[in-house]
Amino acid sequence: VIDGALYRIFHNKHSSERLLLVIPSSEVTNILQLAHDHATTAHLGRRKTLSRLNSRFYWPHMRRDVADYVRACILCQQYKPTNQKPGGLMKPIIVSESWHTVGIDITGPFTKTRRGNHFILVVVDYFTKWV
C-alpha cells in the first residue's frame, strides 16, 4: 500500500520488478474506457489495449475483460476491418430431370440392427424430392 493505494509487485523475466496499481472491480469499466475509447488511444485492438494496461494496472481476469470490451465496442465493429472472409454466395441448383442430381448422406450411429448395421445411407433425388 502506497499513499492509500494498493499495488501489486510484478516480477518480469529480466528479474526487475514493477508496481502495478490494483484496480477495484467498480473502476474496471472506467479504466477500459480510458485505455480503449479515449481520443489518444485510437481504439486499439485487444492485444495493444491489454499491453498498455498490463504496464500500469492489475485486476483479476484483465485479459478476459479487455477482450470482451474491445469485442463489444460499437465503433470498432462499424469501422475496423474484419479478419473474417466473407461467406460464399449461395446459388440455386437447377435440375432438369430425375436422377440428374442426388444428395447422399449418412446418419447414425443408431442401435445395432439384427444384421449388425449402425448407420443409414440416405439418398435424395433433387428433382422429385424422393428419398
Q: What's the SSE blueprint?
A:
Elements: E1 7-11, E2 17-22, H1 28-37, H2 46-54, E3 57-58, H3 62-72, H4 74-79, E4 102-107, E5 120-125
Parallel strand pairs: 2-3
Antiparallel strand pairs: 1-2, 4-5
How would you describe this protein?
- InterPro entries: Gypsy_RT_Integrase-like, Integrase_H2C2, RNaseH-like_sf, RNaseH_sf.
- Residues 23-81 form the Integrase zinc-binding domain.
- It comes from Rotaria socialis.
- The protein is of the alpha+beta class and 131 residues long.
- It has two domains: 7-79, Endonuclease III, domain 1; 91-131, no CATH class.
- The protein has helices spanning 28-37, 46-54, 62-72, 74-79, and strands at residues 7-11, 17-22, 57-58, 102-107, 120-125.
- Strands 1-2-3 form a three-stranded mixed sheet, with no helix packed on it.
- The longest helix has 11 residues, at 62-72.
- The protein is elongated and about 80 Å long.
- The model has no long low-confidence stretch (mean pLDDT 87).
Descriptive keywords:
2 domains; 131 residues; 19% strand; two-stranded antiparallel sheet; elongated; three-stranded mixed sheet; alpha+beta; 27% helix; 4 helices; Endonuclease III, domain 1; single chain
Give the helix tally: 4
Provide the helix percentage: 25-40%
Largest sheet: 3 strands, mixed
* Beta-strand segment tally: 5
Q: Which quaternary structure do these chains form?
A: single chain
Number of domains: 2
- The backbone outline, from C-alpha atoms, is elongated
Tell me the structural class.
Answer: alpha+beta
Query: Secondary-structure element sequence?
Result: EEHHEHHEE
CATH topology of the largest domain: Endonuclease III, domain 1
